[in-house]
Structures are given as structure tokens and as C-alpha cells.
Write a structure and sequence with these properties.
InterPro entries: Rev_trsase/Diguanyl_cyclase
Structural class: alpha+beta
CATH superfamily of the largest domain: Reverse transcriptase/Diguanylate cyclase domain
Protein name: GGDEF domain-containing protein
Number of domains: 2
CATH topology of the largest domain: Alpha-Beta Plaits
Radius of gyration: 29 Å
Oligomer: single chain
Organism: Methylocaldum marinum
Shape: rod-shaped
Strand order of the largest sheet: 3-5-6-4-7
CATH class of the largest domain: Alpha Beta
Keywords: Membrane, Transmembrane, Transmembrane helix
Strand content: 5-15%
């Protein structure tokens, strides 16, 4: 993928050529370089495409090309019917097409950077993330209902393994900007993960952030048995690995088997953290042991 600096340089160079000398001297002939109408059309086209990047980034480049070139040809027919058509008249249209190409490329880059920053800042996340200290009331409510009514309650702890795949991390670091710190990288990875697996969560499930600077996520699963919780954790690991190439460790614990308090459940889930790798079948393990 080309660098945004190349697209910006191409856009500025095309504008400079369009607004260059007013007269091109060709020895015995002197012809106007670019008409005033084309210059005005070039400025309006570049401004509208770059400023309206949200709209133009969703459409193919052929749409602005068709509009600008069609307008240019219509202006030349409307205001210059008596002028002969020569080869250099097509250069005007060609330069306008190049201008539209680079302006559309810049708008795509702006759209791409905006989407990545929104993911990093957790602005477009489909499942809300609450900080752990702010969720104690809801967590205590779940624990109280489980104690009084005997409903199952399970938790999942997800740990994004940042150091397990240096190639994957370097890819994310290039997508983000160089000056972004490790803290924002973790938030970005968590957002990518949650947006990818959000379809597997029910409305009653709650996602909370373990700590402000930690890479771990805690998922509360009311009315969920440990077996169902483990199945959900495995599905999350598979999705993260196949769709994001992101290694994630997952551990699960249930109330009251693994603990009676939130801290005990989290500790039990962290002790059972398992890397996102396919497990060895029980039959095969027994044969090897035999």
C-alpha cells in the first residue's frame, strides 16, 4: 500500500501543474496552458473530495472521475464552441483526472486513519466496556442472586498475549502511529477482539476491564454453567486466532465451585488460563500414556 505522503505529493504536484504558467510557448505557436474554468473546477473538486472524505471513501473512484470529467467536457462545449479542438485540449482533462485520483486516495487515507483512531479510542465498540471499580454494584447483584436463588454464575478471563507474536504486533504498530504508546496499543487490540467476538455474547453478559493498564478482560456470564463458559472461551480463542491472528489465553471459573467472591473467581480463572491452541484428544493422550 502506498504511503500517504506519496498521494499528498502527487496531489500537490498536479495542482502546481494546473496552476503553472498561463501561456505555453511552443515555438511558432502559443496556446493557453489551462483554462480558468478548469482551474476553478480543479480547486472545487480537490476541496470537495478531501473535505467530504466520509462520503467519497465509501464510493469507487469512478464516480468522482465521471462527475469531474463530464463537467469539464460540458464546460468546454458550452463556453468554447468556436475554438478548434486540438491535442493539448485533452491534457486539461487528463490532468483533472489525475487530480481526482490523488484527491480520492487522500480521502481514503483520512477515512482509514479515522477508523483506526476510533477503534483505538473505543468509540465504535458494539459491546460497552466498564471499568472494574465502576461495576462492583452490578457484580455484587449477580453474586447475591446466585447465592439466594442458586443460579449458576461463571466468569471468563481473557489475556491478550502481546509478546507471543511479534509479527502481528508490529503490524498493528504500523497501522497505528509511531508515537502511540503501549497503553493505546492494548486498548486497540482489545477493541478489535471485542468487536470481532461480540456476536457470541448475550445481552445479559457483561464485559469489564480488569485494570486500566492491563491487557486482561473479565467477562461475567450470569446463568451460565462452567461447561458452557468453557465452550464460549474456546470459541473466542478460535475467532481471535483465525480472524485477527491474535493469540489470546482464556480461563474460566464458576460460582460456587471455584469461589464465593469475585476475587476468588478471578484468581481461579487466571490459574486456569490456557493458550489458544488446539487441545490434544483424551483418547490420544491415554494411548500415549499406555
Amino acid at each position: 500500500m502506498k504511503s500517504i505522503s506519496k498521494d499528498l505529493l502527487g496531489l500537490l504536484t498536479t495542482i502546481f501543474v494546473l496552476f503553472g504558467p498561463d501561456i505555453v510557448d511552443l515555438g511558432a505557436y502559443s496556446i493557453p496552458s489551462v483554462s480558468t474554468d478548469s482551474k476553478i473546477l480543479a480547486v472545487l473538486s480537490a476541496t470537495i473530495i478531501v473535505a467530504g472524505w466520509k462520503f467519497w471513501a465509501r464510493h469507487s473512484i469512478y464516480l468522482p472521475l465521471l462527475l469531474v470529467i463530464g463537467t469539464s467536457l460540458a464546460l468546454s462545449v458550452r463556453y468554447g464552441p468556436g475554438q478548434p479542438i486540438h491535442f493539448f485540449g485533452f491534457i486539461e482533462t487528463f490532468l483533472l483526472g489525475i487530480l481526482v485520483y490523488f484527491a480520492h486516495s487522500v480521502s481514503n487515507w483520512i477515512s482509514h486513519i479515522s477508523e483506526e483512531l476510533e477503534k483505538m479510542l473505543l468509540n465504535d465498540i458494539h459491546k460497552p466496556i466498564a471499568k472494574l471499580p465502576d461495576s462492583f454494584d452490578d457484580i455484587n447483584t449477580y453474586l447475591y442472586q446466585s447465592r439466594r436463588s442458586g443460579y449458576p454464575l461463571s466468569v471468563i478471563v481473557l489475556d491478550i498475549k502481546e509478546n507471543c507474536n511479534k509479527i502481528s504486533l508490529s503490524h498493528y504498530q504500523r497501522i497505528l502511529l509511531r508515537e502511540l504508546s503501549e497503553r493505546y496499543l492494548k486498548r486497540y487490540l482489545k477493541t478489535r477482539l471485542i468487536n470481532q467476538i461480540v456476536a457470541g455474547f448475550r445481552r445479559s453478559d457483561m464485559i469489564v476491564m480488569s485494570t486500566e493498564h492491563d491487557s486482561k478482560l473479565l467477562i461475567m456470564c450470569p446463568s451460565t454453567t462452567l461447561e458452557a463458559c468453557n465452550a464460549l472461551a474456546q470459541r473466542i480463542q478460535t475467532t481471535a486466532k483465525e480472524d485477527l491472528d491474535l493469540p489470546v489465553s482464556a480461563g474460566a471459573a464458576s460460582f460456587p465451585t471455584d469461589g464465593f467472591t469475585l476475587e476468588a473467581l478471578i484468581n481461579a480463572a487466571e490459574m486456569s488460563l490456557v493458550d489458544g491452541k488446539p487441545s490434544v484428544p483424551v483418547e490420544e493422550t491415554e494411548e500415549q500414556a499406555a
